[in-house]
Automatic annotation (TrEMBL):
Gene3D superfamilies: 1.10.1740.10, Winged helix-like DNA-binding domain superfamily/Winged helix DNA-binding domain. InterPro entries: RNA_pol_sigma-70-like, RNA_pol_sigma-70_dom, RNA_pol_sigma70_r2, RNA_pol_sigma70_r4_t2, RNA_pol_sigma_r2, RNA_pol_sigma_r3/r4-like, Tscrpt_reg_LuxR_C, WH-like_DNA-bd_sf. Residues 185-207 are annotated as: Disordered. It comes from Embleya hyalina. It comes from the Bacteria. The lineage of its organism: Bacteria, Bacillati, Actinomycetota, Actinomycetes, Kitasatosporales. This is Siderophore-interacting protein. GO terms for molecular function: DNA binding; sigma factor activity. Keywords: Sigma factor, Transcription, Transcription regulation. PANTHER family: RNA POLYMERASE ECF-TYPE SIGMA FACTO (PTHR43133), RNA POLYMERASE SIGMA FACTOR RFAY-RELATED (PTHR43133:SF25). One of its GO terms (biological process) is DNA-templated transcription initiation. SMART domains: HTH_LUXR (SM00421). Residues 132-185 form the HTH luxR-type domain.
Length: 207
């Protein structure tokens, strides 16, 4: 069956029945969104990658207990990612301890250009996070879910466990405060070429 015709509910039901391929399809469908959310929370590619793996490992382990929102797994996955990011130290320790017990994969070539690009992304994200971090945690979470992750306000409410009206008021307040913070955001030190990248990212969020 073509997975493009299957809802997350269909795939999740198959995964609950033990079909690993169905869970793999869910991973392929949502891993990028989960990873991007975690990168914006941590500012680190490596931590985001490990936490993404930890989110899906947790999802597989408790798949029979998961309640999807309107047949979508993404709000639940981002809710788990949010909690893991908030407790990233413990979550990463648990995941990396498990990873250390597994056989090592074959060594991959070191792609220097890709590594350099990731470092540039981390520097740019650090400047964005500097502005966003000035917001209260509750307002910041709504921005991350609704603006960066693309969830509807209803789905964000499900991920956070709050009312839709609460999400709306937090989002309005966060955007208003972020507009004031954008002007005060300093450029990255020693990186003139990156000056416009972080501010443009923040401006997208504040609109």
């Amino acid at each position: 069956m073509n997975i493009s015709t299957e809802t997350d509910r269909d795939l999740w039901d198959r995964a609950c029945a033990g079909e690993r391929s169905a869970f793999g399809d869910l991973f392929d469908r949502h891993a990028r969104a989960v990873h991007n959310f975690l990168f914006r929370r941590t500012g680190s590619w490596a931590d985001a990658e490990d936490l993404t793996s930890a989110v899906f490992l947790h999802a597989w382990r408790i798949r029979a207990e998961v309640v999807l929102f309107q047949d979508s797994a993404l709000p639940w996955l981002l809710g788990v990612a949010r909690n893991m990011a908030a407790n990233s130290g413990r979550a990463l320790l648990r995941y990396r301890a498990l990873q250390a017990r597994l056989p090592l994969p074959p060594a991959a070539p070191d792609h220097a250009d890709e590594v350099a690009a990731r470092l540039d992304d981390e520097r740019a994200m650090a400047s964005v996070l500097c502005a966003v971090a000035a917001l209260p945690e509750r307002d910041r979470e709504v921005l991350e879910l609704c603006v960066w992750s693309g969830l509807s306000q209803e789905a964000a409410a499900a991920a956070l466990g709050v009312a839709v009206g609460t999400v709306k008021s937090r989002l309005h307040r966060a955007r208003a405060r972020l507009r004031d913070l954008v002007a005060a955001l300093p450029p990255p030190a020693g990186d003139p070429a990156a000056t416009n990248r972080p501010s443009s990212c923040v401006k997208d969020v504040s609109r």
